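Subject: complex prediction, re-run

Hi both,

The earlier run crashed halfway through, so I resubmitted it with identical inputs.
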Amino acid sequence: MKALWVSDKYNLARFDCIQSVYNLLTRDVEYELLPVCAAEGVGVTVYNPLAAGFLTGKYDPAKPPPPDNRFGRERTGPHEQDMYWSPANFQAVDKLKKIADGHGYKLTLFSLAWVINNPVISSTIVGASSAKQMEENIGAADIVLNEEDKKGCDAVWGDLRPPRVFYGK
Amino acid sequence: MQYKRVGRTGLKISEITLGTMIFGKQVNEADAIKIMDLAFDRGITSFDTADAYVAGRSEEIVGKALKNKRHAVVLASKVANRQGPGPNEAGLSREHMMQAVEDSLRRLGTDYLDIYYAHTPDNTTPVEETLRAFDTLVKQGKVRYVACSNFRAWQLVRALSVSEQHNLARFACIQTPYNLITRDIETELLPCCAGEGVGVTVYNPLAAGLLTGKHNVSAGPASDTRFGIDKVYYERYWSPVNFTAVEHLKKIADTHGRNMAQFALAWVLSSPLVTSTINGASSTKQLEENLGALELKLTPEEMKACDDVWLELRPPRFFYGR
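This time it finished cleanly. Structure:
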C-alpha cells in the first residue's frame, strides 16, 4: 500500500501485481494482502500453490523425503522442509485428501483448482519436472469447487490456524 | 508515569490511559468519579470513552468527573458505532459524523475533544469523505487530533495516503487490541505504525480480565465480571487454549512473585512501539493495584518465556513477507 502511495504521489510506474505464496496450508495473505489487492486493483500471482509439492499428498511422514526431490535435496531440502514438512501439515493433507476423494479428484488438481478458482488471484504459477506432470496439472483449470468443498477446506485451515481475536473489523 | 508522544504528532499522553467503557454499567457514577479522580492524582492524563459506551452514559459521567480539570487532560471519544435505528446513525459518513460529534460534546460537557477516533472502518463510505469530515472538525476547533480503531494495516496506510494527497488531518494513532495472548498486530500493523509515525493505543491489555488469572474455566464466568455480563468478551477470550496459556503465564509471573495482572500490564507497557495502554478499573482498589505495573520491569528470561507461550498459541507457519 505504501509503494502504491509513493507511485501515485510521484506519478511513477505502479506495481501491477504482487507475487505471493498462497495454498490450502498457507493462507495468511487473506488477512491483509488479498483485501488490499482487491481494493486497489493489484493483481496477485501465486507461487507454491502446491506447497512445494506437499499438497500432492505423495509424501509419507514416516519416511524421509527422497534425495532426488525438492524436500530431500541437500541444497534446497532443509529450507523447503522448514516451510512445510510438519506433523500438523501432514494431518491437514490427510483431511484434504478425503475432501478431494469425495469427488474422485487427485489432491494435486483439487489443491490447484482451489487457488485458481479464487477471483482475487490473477494467475497461479505451477512448475513441472516433466511434460507428463504439466499435462496432468493443466487439468486443474477445469475443476470447479462447490461451497461444501470450500467449507471443508476452511475447516482444515481453521485447525492449522485456530481463529483468535482479529485486530481488524 | 511516563508521557509519550503520540506517533509523530506533538501530543504527549500518559503511558496509561484510563478506560471508561463500564462507567454507568458495572460502575456507578459516584464510584466512577472517585476512580477518575484517583487516576488523575496518580498522573494519568489520558482518558478514553466513546459514544457507544453504555449508550452515552460513560461520556456523561466522564464529562462530570473532568469538570474542573478539562484542560489538564487529553480526552478521547469515538464515532462510527450505531447511535440510532436510521441509516445515517452509524458509520463514518460526514452525515453521521457531524451529528455524532455534537452529541458527544454535549454529553461530555465540553466544546472540544483532544482525540476523536473512527471506532471501526466503514466500507460503505469513501475514506476521503471521512477524512474531510475529520479535517473540518479540526478546523472548527471541535477536535484536536484524529485517529482510528480496528483498522487493518492496509486500511490505515490507505487513509494516511489520502490525508497526504488532499492535505487533510492525518490519523495520529490507532487503537488496537494487544496483550500476551493476542499478538497478531506484530506481523503487519506494528511495523506499519513504526514506519509511518502513527501512535498505538492498546485496548484489552488484560484480555478483558482473563490475564488477571482470577477466572476459573471449570467454574465458568462469574456474573459480576465482564465475561458474565458481556457475551462479546466471553466469545472473544474464554477458551481452553487461552486458559492453558494463562496457566503457563501464571507460572512465569510466580517465579519472581509478580502479581499476574501487573505482570501482564507491564509486558504491554514495555513495548517501545506502544504509546499508551488503555486500562479500565471497576474500583479505586483495582486501579491502585494495576498502577503497580509501572514499577515492574520484565527480565529477558521472562520476555522469552512469554514469547514461548505465544508460539504455542500461534505456531509459526511459512510467512508471506520477508
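Chain A touches chain B through 33 residues (CB under 8 Å).

- K.
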